[in-house]
C-alpha cells in the first residue's frame, strides 16, 4: 500500500490524494503538517529533508514535490488515462502543471494574502487584475475540452484543480473567465474533485 504524509487542507496534498483516488490505488494518509506537526522529526526528515508536505512512499520509492508525485502516479498507474498515450496530449497536460506553479500560484497567493491582511482596496484590485490577466491565458487556451488536454481528465487537470477551486472563491472572478467557468463545471462532475478538493480546500 502507498503511504502519503500530509493534510487534506493542503492544496499540494489534495491533488495527490485525488490522483490516488481517481486511479483507485489503495493508500494510507498519515496526517502531518500544521496542527499535526511531525515535519521536523528525524524520521520524517529522513523521508523528506525539506520538512514539507506531501511525501509519498511506494515500496522502496520515496518522492516529494507534489507535481512530481502526480506525474509518477499518472505514469505508474494511469497509463492511457491520467497519463495520455499521445505525446502531444501528454505534453499539453504537463505544461499546465508547470504554468500553474510558476504563474498562477504566485499571483493567487499574493491576492489571498492581501485579502487576509485587509490590504488597501486599490492594492487588492491591482492583485485581482493580475490574477485575471494570468488566468485569461488558460481561458483562451481551453478548447472544446472539456479538460485541458481534450476529452479525458489528465494529470494536468489534477494539478490545476485546487487553484481553480480557489479562483471560484475570489470576488466573482470566474464571471470574467467563461471558459474556465465551464472547465470548473466539468471538474465538479468528478467525485474526486468534490471529495478531495471542494470539501477541504479554502
UniProtKB/TrEMBL annotation:
Domain GST N-terminal as annotated: residue spans: 1-81
Pfam families: GST_C_2, GST_N
GO molecular function, one term: transferase activity
Database matches in InterPro entries: Glutathione-S-Trfase_C-like, Glutathione-S-Trfase_C_sf, Glutathione_S-Trfase, Glutathione_S-Trfase_N, Thioredoxin-like_sf
Domain GST C-terminal: 86-202
Keyword line: Transferase
Highest rank taxon of the organism: Bacteria
Signal peptide location: none
Gene3D superfamilies: 1.20.1050.10, Glutaredoxin
Family affiliation: Belongs to the GST superfamily.
UniProt-recorded name of the protein: Glutathione S-transferase
Species for this entry: Pandoraea cepalis
Amino acid at each position: 500500500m502507498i503511504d502519503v504524509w500530509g493534510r487534506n487542507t493542503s492544496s499540494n496534498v489534495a491533488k495527490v490524494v485525488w490522483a490516488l483516488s481517481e486511479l483507485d490505488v489503495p493508500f494510507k494518509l498519515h496526517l502531518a503538517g500544521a496542527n499535526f506537526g511531525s515535519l521536523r522529526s528525524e524520521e520524517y526528515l529522513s523521508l523528506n529533508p525539506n520538512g514539507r508536505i506531501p511525501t509519498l512512499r511506494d515500496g522502496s520509492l520515496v518522492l516529494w514535490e507534489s507535481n512530481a508525485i502526480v506525474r509518477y502516479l499518472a505514469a505508474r498507474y494511469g497509463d492511457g488515462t491520467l497519463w495520455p498515450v499521445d505525446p502531444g496530449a501528454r505534453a499539453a497536460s504537463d505544461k499546465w502543471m508547470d504554468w500553474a506553479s510558476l504563474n498562477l500560484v504566485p499571483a493567487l497567493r499574493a491576492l489571498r494574502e492581501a485579502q487576509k491582511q485587509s490590504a488597501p482596496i486599490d492594492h487588492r484590485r491591482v492583485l485581482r487584475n493580475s490574477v485575471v490577466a494570468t488566468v485569461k491565458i488558460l481561458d483562451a487556451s481551453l478548447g472544446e475540452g472539456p479538460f485541458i488536454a481534450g476529452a479525458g481528465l489528465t494529470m494536468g487537470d489534477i494539478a490545476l484543480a485546487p487553484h481553480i477551486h480557489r479562483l471560484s472563491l475570489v470576488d466573482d472572478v470566474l464571471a470574467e473567465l467563461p471558459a474556465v467557468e465551464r472547465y470548473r463545471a466539468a471538474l465538479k462532475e468528478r467525485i474526486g474533485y468534490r471529495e478531495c478538493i471542494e470539501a477541504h480546500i479554502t
